[in-house]
Model the fold of this input.
Amino acid sequence: MLDGSIEELESRSLARIAAAADAAELESARVEALGRKGWLGQFSKEMGRLSPEERKRLGQLLNGARERLEAALEARQRQDAAAALEARLAGEWLDVTLPAPGPRRGHLHPITRIQRELEALFSSLGFAVLDGPEVETEYHNFDALNIPRDHPARDMQDTFWLEGGNLLRTHTSPVQVRGMERLGPPLRMIAPGRAFRNESVDASHEHTFYQLEGMMVDREVSVAHLLYFMKTLLAAIFGREVTVRLRPGYFPFVEPGFELDVQCLICGGVGCAVCKQSGWVELLPCGLVNPNVLRMSGIDPEQWNGFAFGLGLTRLAMMRYGIDDIRHLQGGDLRFLEQF
Ligand code: FA5
Done:
């Protein structure tokens, strides 16, 4: 009678061990059979009440069952450990013969990108791309642009003066002068680069910013030519119609002079910090070259005339990418730059 129930319990425990879905189920099968209060223990306790022969026989039966159960448990545990290792190896598989990922590649700064696009555009229109020094002479930055020493226009651009009378150029216009001196007429040139002004920084003003100067000197250049190039430039950058306005602007090196403003693309024209609540952003001052400027660079204004413009490249980048504060652009924060 006891024999039968031991066999039955053993086969039930063996079945539970075999069918355990996880470590917890296996453990509960172990506790049920081999634990302190398990059925093997319960039978052992009963043995005191049996005759010596009965006790011996039952003892053998129980030992046999215990050994088989322990062996089954151990086999199952080994099998589970092997399966877990297998799964981990499959998950952490690494092909050491694959090529290394290599250094992380960066990308161009948004201003550089627009600068290169404009260089490609103007090159295709026959313009040379010129570079000029950031440390300039007073002559190239002011005098040769028809801004005499006592002229109030010098105060319009707060200048960083250097020892010895030179300065950090306040605009890219001195490269016009260098272009005319070096290349003479007819001339088509652009000059992208940095300009520096000692002015207080806000959402649309930096002390260091980018401009792109443009100049064309030829025979009978008109405002119509100027407007054609301005429109071509804006269409290339924005790829769509943007609302612009042209109003008179005063610069001693052009006559007539204009300010070309773009309707603020940050706020859509309703007013924000970038456009100083006006709805318009000053972007592209321009005009026909003042004859004095041509004359000073050795070009006869009776024979030649031209147009010039000074695009605010940093502001153009802000308009194109919807950047609402100029300080982001040179702040060096990768979280900002990685968006482009
Ligand atoms: C000039 O610098 C003239 N040299 C432009 C010019 C060239 C006129 C040729 C006529 C013929 P202005 O100071 O307005 O002009 O600056 C030109 C553009 O540079 C502005 O429209 C603006 O877009 C940008 N700019 C000026 N100051 C800053 C600044 N602090 N931060 C960012 N952008 C600026």
User: Anything to note?
Assistant: The chain has a mean pLDDT of 92. The first strand starts at residue 128 and ends at 129. Residues 157, 171, 173, 197, 199, 205-206, 209, 211, 251, 254, 257, 282-283, 285-287, 308-310, 312, 314-315, 326 surround adenosine-5'-[phenylalaninyl-phosphate] (CB under 6 Å). The beta strands are 128-129, 135-136, 167-168, 187-196, 208-218, 244-248, 254-263, 280-289, 305-312.
